[in-house]
Amino acid sequence: MSTATTTTSAHAPSVGTGHTRVEGRDKVTGAARYAAEVPFAGLAHGWLVLSTIARGRIRSLDTEPVLAMPGVLAVLDHRNAPHLNTDYTGLMGLRPDPTCAVFQHDRVPHLGWPVALVVAETSEQAREAAETLVVHYEQEPHHVELSGDHPDAHPVDGHEPAVTEKGDLDARLASSAFVVDAEYTTPEEHHNPMEPHAATARWDDGRLEVTDSNQGVTWVAGELQNLFSLDPASVRVRSEHVGGGFGSKGVRAHQVAAVMAATLLQRPVRVALTRRQMFALAGHRSPTVQRVRLGADADGRLRALEHRSVSRTSTVYEFVEPSAGVARVMYDADAHHTANHVVPLDVPSPTWMRAPGEAPGSFALEAALDELAEKCGIDPIELRLRNEPETGPVSGLPFAGRDLAACFREGARRFGWADRDSRPGVRREGRWLLGTGTAAASFPAGAQPSTASATAHPDGTFTIRISAADIGTGARTALTLIAADALQVPPERIRVRIGDSDFGPAGIAGGSMGTRSWSWAVKAAAGELRERLALGAGLPAQGLTVRSDTTEAVEALGPAERHSYGAQFAEVAVDVTTGEVRVRRMLGIFAAGRIVNPLTARNQLLGGMVWGISMALHEEAARDRASGGVVGADLAGYHVATHADVPRIEAGWIEDTDPDDPVGIKGIGEIGVVGAAAAVANAVWHATGVRHRSLPIRPDRVLAAAAGAPDA
Amino acid sequence: MALSTSSVITLKINGEKHTLPVDHRTTLLDALRERLDLTGTKKGCDQGQCGACTVLLDGRRAVACLQLAVAAEGREITTIEGVADGERLHPVQQAFLDLDGFQCGYCTPGQICSAIGMIQEHAAGWPSAVTEDVRPQAGPPPLTADEIRERMSGNLCRCGAYVAIVEAVARAAEAHTGEGHEDAATGGAKEAVI
Lengths: 712, 194
Fold this sequence. Notes:
The structure holds 2 protein chains of 2 kinds.
Chain A: E1 2-3, H1 24-29, E2 44-50, E3 56-61, H2 63-67, E4 72-76, E5 107-108, E6 114-120, H3 123-132, E7 135-139, E8 154-155, E9 163-166, H4 169-174, E10 178-186, E11 198-204, E12 207-212, H5 217-227, E13 235-238, H6 253-265, E14 269-272, H7 275-281, E15 288-296, E16 302-313, H8 327-330, E17 335-344, H9 358-376, H10 380-386, H11 404-415, E18 428-429, E19 432-444, E20 451-456, E21 462-465, H12 475-487, E22 494-497, H13 514-534, E23 538-539, E24 544-549, H14 551-555, E25 563-575, E26 581-591, H15 598-617, E27 649-653, H16 676-688, H17 699-706
Parallel strand pairs in A: 2-14, 12-13, 16-17, 21-22, 26-27
Antiparallel strand pairs in A: 1-23, 2-6, 3-5, 3-7, 4-6, 8-17, 9-17, 10-15, 11-12, 11-14, 15-16, 18-19, 19-25, 20-21, 20-24, 25-26
Helix pairs in contact in A: 9-16, 12-13, 15-16
Chain B: E1 6-13, E2 16-23, H1 28-35, E3 54-57, E4 60-63, E5 76-78, H2 91-99, H3 108-123, H4 145-151, H5 162-177, H6 182-185
Parallel strand pairs in B: 1-5
Antiparallel strand pairs in B: 1-2, 3-4, 3-5
Keywords (chain B): Iron, Metal-binding, Oxidoreductase
Organism (chain B): Streptomyces eurythermus
Domain 2Fe-2S ferredoxin-type (chain B): 7-83
């Protein structure tokens, strides 16, 4: 036993200082192993077979010839697959999406529905056999088209109520000096993390072990435990490195199919999705049709606000893209109505995608605000500042820090907004029309209960263990800095281990809550460990470990409107001959709580803004009416922004904190994308004088608008 | 005569020879990842659309998913595992690490291999679609941020770390040529008014 001499009083704080990623060397040398790269002896490969019809029934599957093919070990389908339990409420308080409960019946609810898994010795054999398998269907007519006035649209509560209403909307609109009434649409969008979903399942001494790529090992372990009716202690899910998630990496068909096959064959089975399969199986953001009606006094003060959104869900699961929710936070009016409706269609279930609700919702609302500014003849920033609410417009709750005005002031100064000529369509540079635009942003700041452990080792180093996920956010590094400060030691003496459900329950990397939730638990465990060491606690050879659980503290958070805020600015150039829109520069200033690691935070905020450029100009999954599937379901058909689309953009932040958070964190994963597409669209109006209310702003739409087509 | 669907081949990877039997359908990417445990080369789309599997074949950029392993015999194959000098990182790797030129890290090996190949292509005088003077006698154009963006556009980064990637490539290119182009190395100061 040695005595702890591990803390120093003259410790320089790590939080707030830029620090390169602790796993960075592994990532730039290729040493970091992602889910499909962890080797297993005796590994078999599973390949999913997806339906080629969008609605109907499986009549039969010709499995016999496939089973005779070289290397084929098994074919799993609804006739021989293990029964799954889907009658439960999961960790997130949600019922399971039947999309992940594979092979339980003969119904086909969308194109690309998993109908079988072929398992073989090699991936080439599995793929060939899967492509050989003939499936006979009984096809029924399908419907995949969403419209704003679809007869099946109905209100659905998501994580917030479907409908909020106060005041007499019609009366207030009628008495308003200026009215905006417009419909905005956003297309179906896909997450497309660079690493395709992959999982390897195996049984080890009575325990199910899954090596996966996900946004929360506690979450996925819980879902698998429920689906397969297993004892919680007998499921272990690991996910050390995750190649992006953006909301798509929860429990999905491939993990469930891999567990089924590993159970049947009693050997490790890996199932990896192909890029093309991801378009059917990894979730997506629903298209939206949004109607915004604004009524304002002559001085621009809002008297009436209506935001209605219609999105699409599958026929087997109700998921709502809550786009109208953003109005409940941003602006107040005497008459204030919001509603989120969904239409069930024969499509895959949508899911959370980076800034669910806020990303499409802020496009519609912030574009409508820009239209109102034009009508009132008031500067768009001034219009927003005049409509800053005192309390939550719908909740009436106080704001736990709302510094949107400071974001606009700082942003306007750095962007040079004061020199802007508000007239549209008057700046020309050769064949380019130039314009600038702005938009406001907000995203909820939440926290989830988490547990962590902190261990002091006799050699003066420390190990933090927490079931966190680093999906590219820099969470592993942020937690290292948090622990270093709590222990008052340099970060080099901290080892943070994440992505293992055996470390105990913790929240997900989602809803911008990951780093905040985990930091809370890490700070609690590390802080208590330091106190014990300060009291002279001796260190046994195996070290001294302290555990924390933030459940009570998080649940004790008082009611308040807790959000991050931001001001987005964009300058675009529009080619009058080709209709091409180029973003020339962009600036986002955010009030997003305490910034733990400025180096990675800047990168993440910029990444969100790149998503905004991508959403405004490129991304669109075109669903084919005839087949019911996505046309060009790959990265050539589905365009995401690449190097040449992204100029030098800048992100900054102002001093901000959450007074009720132990570190002051609000979360920065999503705020960067909110409002970004609206800023670009508003800049396109300023450049051309034409409003584009449908995303993406494609060249053909720009040309059609310039040619005088009524609906851009 | 029975059809043969596999062969024993020898691949020269990072200066080392590997002899292995492969299914003729096996791509170079799958041979690296599934057979040789060289998993640094990533599979992002398997269709030549994302650049995550970029390696250097005889010093030139190539996507390993569109190359059959049997067709790579006799080529000098360099993967991300082979670009560092022992423990000393390649200047491109070091710049990515120092400037945070990645987030999730999955496109990173491809971005780095692509940048290494790109810097050599540029030094050899190859023009790009944004090069103003493309006459052979004009020599290499200034490696501006726009040149880097154009030349790196085959490598997608869904996290959107492009700003830092361009900064990292510019810094490494500067070290390579010994002469910096201020425009690129500062992330495009000439074009930015912010």
